[in-house]
Design goal:
about 375 residues, elongated, Heat Shock Protein 90, single chain, alpha/beta, Rossmann fold
């Protein structure tokens, strides 16, 4: 039936009083029996964010009550316990985790709701593989990052460059096209395979490494890299220790005087997001740090912070018009909208930081 088809003239809520008990009381009694004959089954996937579990409990309580099956305080407490248990289990394993709630109403005419709660995780590698299949157009941008182009333009001779989080190659290929020897590190096999294929087609000197840099040192000689580029990588991190691991490895592979360009979400001055926001940011691939945490990760390393610039503003100003925006999601993501839902007063922003390796490093 279309929206314009006329409906039969059937009264929806007949009002004649036919009992001394009263119409509303009778209706409530009728619906109480009808709910017992109503059947439903569903699965809900909540992001495994422990700090938000009480919101999930409220949502489910409303759902069950709307079906005529309100939970008692004891039942809600047990539901809360299970949700928190599985949310912590999923979150501890991976930021890419959901809490699955499967429920169905009883078939015996009672008002019972039978439910199960489980944690489910997936990897960013598998998600990026889906991107290569389901998304059209450039996955991360039409051209290399403008901040990288600025750094490459200052080089006068072929050198060794490193691209961590190389994706399918927009930055690594640009390095190689300018005559540099390139190490390209990418965690997702589907992306690294595309990069390797593109490099072979153009006969470019790109050595592709499919690896999570947090799991092991990179197979790159110490003090051999002159320009390192790390974009859209720290947004997948979980802790300050992860950031420290990245900086430690950059300090090892960079030659004295070498530079690293790293994109990282930092909190805006005066902003102090709570634990729920921090956990949500990890799930939403927007992990952020405070300026103090950035300094902590750099402590005791032979790296000097040379600049700290707003990445969105820099890329918007310097990328060619035909390359802006890089993707349909970049502008909002870079302003923290994926986490906080607003740009009126940004809480976090994506920054380009430039680090320089000291000329001499004491052991």
């Amino acid at each position: 039936m279309s929206r314009n088809d006329s409906l039969p003239n059937v009264p929806i809520d007949p009002s004649p009083e036919f009992s001394t008990i009263g119409h509303q009381a009778l209706r409530k009694g009728v619906m109480g029996r009808i709910w017992r004959r109503t059947r439903t089954a569903a699965e809900i996937a909540f992001p495994a964010i422990p700090s938000l579990v009480f919101h999930y409990v409220d949502f489910l309580a409303d759902q069950f009550a709307a079906m005529g099956r309100p939970f008692s305080t004891a039942e809600l407490n047990e539901l809360s316990r299970l949700l928190l248990l599985k949310a912590n289990e999923g979150f501890d394993k991976s930021p890419n985790a959901n809490v699955l709630v499967r429920y169905q109403t009883s078939n015996d005419g009672s008002l019972h709701v039978h439910y199960q709660v489980a944690a489910s995780t997936w990897s960013s590698e598998s998600e990026y593989e889906k991107w290569t299949v389901n998304r059209t157009g450039p996955l991360f941008g039409k051209s290399a990052d403008a901040r990288l182009i600025t750094a490459l333009t200052a080089l006068t001779t072929p050198l060794t460059c490193l691209d961590i989080g190389a994706g399918n190659g927009r930055n690594a290929l640009e390095m190689a096209r300018r005559g540099h020897r390139v190490w390209a590190v990418e965690i997702a096999p589907a992306l690294s395979e595309q990069l390797e294929s593109s490099a072979k087609e153009e006969n470019l000197p790109v050595h592709v490494v499919t690896q999570n840099l947090l799991n092991a040192d990179l197979p790159i000689d110490s003090e051999s890299v002159h320009i390192a580029h790390v974009a859209q990588v720290t947004s997948h991190f979980r802790t300050v220790e992860d950031l420290k691991k990245l900086f430690t490895e950059l300090a090892r592979v960079l030659a004295p005087g070498g530079k690293a360009l790293v994109s990282v979400f930092l909190t805006e001055p005066g902003e102090h997001p709570d634990r729920a926001a921090q956990q949500a940011a990890q799930y939403l691939w927007s992990t952020f740090y405070t300026p103090q945490e950035l300094q902590s990760a750099l402590a005791d390393l032979p790296l000097t912070l040379r600049s700290n610039e707003n990445a969105l503003a820099y890329e918007r100003e310097h990328l060619p018009n035909e390359s802006w925006p890089p993707t349909d999601w970049f502008e909002e993501w870079a302003q923290g909208v994926d986490v906080f839902g607003t740009t009126e007063k940004p809480v976090i922003s994506l920054r380009w930081i430039e680090l320089e390796r000291a000329a001499h490093c004491s052991s």
